[in-house]
Structures are given as structure tokens and as C-alpha cells.
Amino acid sequence: MRRRTLLHALPTLLAAPALAQPAWAPDRPVRIIVAFPPGGSTDVVSRLIATPLAEALGQPVVVENRGGASGMIGTEVAARAAPDGHTLLMTASGPQAINPSLFPSVPYDPVRGFAPILLVAVYPLLMVTPIDRGPRSVAEFVRHAKASGGRLNYCSIGSGQPSHLAGELFKSMAGIEMTHIPYRGSGPAVIAAVAGECDVLFDSALSSGPQVRGGRLRALAVTTSKRLPSWPDLPTVAEAGLPGYDAYTWNALVAPAGTPPAAVARLNAEVGRILAAPALRTQLEAQGAVPGGGSAAEMARFLDSEISKWAEVIRAGGIKPD
Questions:
Q1: Residue 137 Cα distances to 93, 168, 230, 240, angstroms
Q2: Which of 29, 57, 277, 288 could form a disulfide linkage to 206, CB 3.0–4.6 angstroms apart?
Q3: Does the structure show a pLDDT above 90 at 196?
């Protein structure tokens, strides 16, 4: 009887490991293309994910930097790669959601050219002013701007960059006029703000935050719809007077269009698990980021909304690339 019972159970026991196996697994190294030079936030988050992802997949995961042309060179390389799950792109708001409306043409389709996997991280911006300026809140700043008759200005880290578009969105929603002063990168823009060369700057918490904590800039608000965990006492722009305002940069993992759904599902599950780990969340928050997650379908809807939002801001502001 015992032998018959074991024999009866054997097919199930043999099937159990097969059922537990993932539906897709890479059979060679996986590369994550980063369309920017080493050292930036997109590169950093890719490398934070690469090691645990390699452990989960059982294959090396290599980060490959292909910078240039505002992220369009690396993005095109990824779009043309074989759609087999072995090439991924850690994309960002610039090349995926902004460039298609900013430039006359881009060498890829930001929607049809890729299979979304998941949102990896969101980077809120801080709305900061020189410490010696009068306004101490968003509402005070808007009143001051309206009273100034268009004499105020705002810095950005470059024309067409999220910092610039956040300022344009603020102008539009607040009904004010300000002159845009672009700088080449976050460092020079923050230095200019500290020196009082501009009245306001929208910049990442990672680069402007130390100047706020050091008493050289004043933070009026955070630009996302929710407060930043590392700045819990700082209100959002929406809370402080502009309901509906929401601006930020982000990273997301995508694959070339046509990548098997099983590969997308496995990668979504593994990276989602990695992002939920407390240690990694702490590392991302130290970079001024809010860890992402969610399904591939949610990522697709998010991308559509980002493309539409920034297309309208670019059109209304007549924004052109540098």
C-alpha cells in the first residue's frame, strides 16, 4: 500500500519542481543599457539593481553606458536590440517622455519601440530660493511674482531638462511670468541660486538639499504630489497653493518591443522584489529617490501620461532644445 501511494504521488512530486521553475530564464549575460555617462542617477540606480538581479537570474548583469544626444543614442541602441530579454534599458523621463516633443524627431518610438517592465525610481525636485529672498512659502512667492510684473527669473539645469519644465509648469499653473536662465548642469545652477543670481530653482534633492540643510538656500516645497520621506516637514507645491502640480524625474526599466511576455513578467517580479528590500530602499532614498514598483501595465499608463503632460508644457512654452 505504501509503495502504491508513493507511486501514485510520484507524477505530482516530479512535476512540482517544474511548476516552481520560472517561465523564462536568461541563458547568457543580461545587459542594462544606460543612455548617459557613468556617475549620474540613472547609472547609479542601474548598478544598485544589477548585482541582486544577477543573483536572482543566475546570469551576470552588465551595465553598459551609451551616453550622448540627450540620451537618444543609448535609447536607439536598446530599441534596435534583439527582443529576447537579454538587453534592457534603464530609461529616464528625458529620452522617453520629453525628447519626443522637444526635438523635431527622435530615432525611436518611445511607446511602440519598447516593452515596459516597471517604474524603478522617482526623483522629486525641491523648489528652492536664495536664503535672503523674502518669500517663505509657495503662496508668498506667487504673490511676490505677480506683484513684480514679470521681473523675476528662475534657474534650470538646462533648456528642455526636467528642471526647466518644472519651472514652466509652475509658471503656467500659478499664472505668473518669469524669465528662464539655463545653466549647464545642476552644479552651476545651484551655485547660481546660492549666489542670488536667480529667484527660484527647481532641482533634485540630492544636489540642492545640502545647500538647504547648510542654510544657504531655502526650500519652499517639494514638487511631487506626495511629501518626500527624507523631507517630511516640507509641503508639496500642491499642498502649498497649486493643487494638481506634480513634477519630477524618474527611471524605468524597459526592453525592446517584442520581448516575450514571460521575460517581462519575470523581470518585473524580480526587480520589484529587489526594490522592496529595505536596504536598497535606504540606498535609493539617500540618492533623493522614492523607490518605484508596480506592474508593466501600470508602467505603460504612466509613460503615456508623462508624454502627454510634458508635450503640452513644451508646446505652450515654445520650448526648444539647447
A1: 28, 18, 19, 7
A2: 288
A3: yes
